[in-house]
Amino acid sequence: MNRTRASEIASSAEMVNVNYDGRPIYIEHINPNRDTASIHFLSQPENSQEVQLTQLVEP
Question: What predicted TM-score, i.e. pTM, was given to this entire model?
Answer without folding.
Answer: 0.92
